[in-house]
Amino acid sequence: MIQHALPRRSDAVKVPGQQFQRAGPKTMNDSLFETLCARTAGVCLYGLAPPKQSTPAGQLEEIAARQLARLQSLAIDGVIVYDIQDEAERISTPRPFPFLPTIDPDTYAHHHLASLKKQKIVYRCVNRDTPQSFIQWLKHQHTASTPRLSVLVGAPRQGSVTGLSLASAYLLAQQHAPNLLLGGVAIAERHGKSGNEHERILGKAENGCRFFVTQAVYDVTSTKSLLSDYALALQERGGMPLPVILTFAPCGSAKTLSFMKWLGIAFPRWLENELRMSGDPLPTSVDLCEKIFAEVWDYAREKGIPIGVNVESVSVLKAEVDASVELFHRLRERMGVSMP
Predict the structure, then answer these.
(1) Looking at residue 224, which CATH number applies to its domain?
(2) What is the C-alpha to C-alpha distance for residues 36 and 27, in angstroms, rounded to an integer?
(3) Could you tell me if 89 and 71 are in contact, meaning their C-beta atoms sit under 8 angstroms apart?
(4) How many domains in the chain?
(5) Dihedral (C-alpha) 75, 80, 84, 85: value to the nearest 10 degrees?
(6) Which residues contact 119 (CB under 8 A, 6 or more apart)?
(7) Burial letters for 229-238: b for 16+ Cβ neighbours within 10 Å, e otherwise?
(8) Band (193; pLDDT cuts 50, 70, 90)
(9) Nearest 5°: phi and psi at 296?
(10) Would you say residue 7 lies in a domain?
């Protein structure tokens, strides 16, 4: 059983009499678990989706070997392994690419990627669970020999009544896996529409989340507005900021752009024009991502919010995957995180 005790849930949410605390420098000896618990800025992650369930065994081994080689070449603090679900009910627009079920992310992270000696953050879509199946999964996390980290994801559409609710999942996690380090999803675009995403973050923190991961960022205004409202709310409540990990993904073609927009990623008109009019949108998108990150990074530092990055490629095309590796190096350098 894990012996790593988490901070009490109330400690990370409310600290009376204190304002913002700037996290100290991260060292290469800190585990991802410890770094996130310490609310330290500069976390560098790489995100990926598991292969399709229909992938033949031999091909699956080849895919895992390629991903391991790529990950081992990067100075990462950890890996995010996504739980891919069909989000057709979220939006009326047809999905640009057909949905194909993927391998269980927990299995892929801790079995196929086991030789990578970095901690994994495993996403779990709880709306596919029953209370019994989720408790079984929680007990497996709680009794693992190494610390486990997970981001719980609810139904793709509000009001859905299928499966386990996110609120119920958080309660069960506190009861059956108190040492599981929980993270939550933060969506700046949702804040741009509703203006209450910071309240969702605060609510998830009350329910045990210790860090947050955004979807891919291309809208700098919505992202800064979310961080601003989050900082103000914490100041009013006397709380301490939790790490916010910003996700970035290159966009190398009109097809990738269409898919990213379908996923809910917001592209301001001017930025979308830049990509569409570019003779080669891939390097253009990498440059834009770096500029966006630099602006948000400086802003978050002013507000005392510990920021990290997660880089992914929503495409399996080699050029876009290679671009994601280049982007990872650029953003890591931007944060001034020393190489090992």
Answers:
(1) 3.20.20.220
(2) 12
(3) no
(4) 1
(5) -150
(6) 31, 32, 33, 77, 78, 79, 146, 147, 149
(7) bbbeebeeee
(8) confident
(9) -70, -40
(10) no
Would you mind telling me the total number of residues written for the chain in this entry?
Answer: 340
Separation of CA 16 from chain center? 29
Residue 188 in contact with residue 152, Cβ under 8 Å? Answer: no
* Percent of the chain clearing pLDDT 70 (strictly above): 85
Q: Is residue 3 included in any domain, yes or no? A: no
- Within a domain: 28: no
Using pLDDT thresholds of 50, 70 and 90, give the confidence band for residue 95.
low
Residue 277's identity, in one-letter code, is M
Please give the structure tokens belonging to residue 299. Answer: 């802003």
Q: How far apart are CA 200 and CA 186, in angstroms?
A: 8
Assess if residue 106 is contained within a domain: yes
DSSP labels for 39-71? T-S--EEEEEPPPBTT--HHHHHHHHHHHHHHH
DSSP code of 109? I
* Residue 248, both tokens: 């970035």
The upper half-sphere exposure of residue 245, i.e. CA atoms within 13 Å in the direction of its Cβ, equals 31
Range of the domain at 330: 33-335
> Do 307 and 300 meet the contact criterion of CB atoms below 8 Å apart?
yes
Asked if 303 and 295 touch (Cβ cutoff 8 Å), the reply is no
Pairing of strands 244-248, 209-216: parallel
Q: What is the DSSP string of 161-191?
A: -SS--HHHHHHHHHHH-TTSEEEEEE-HHHH
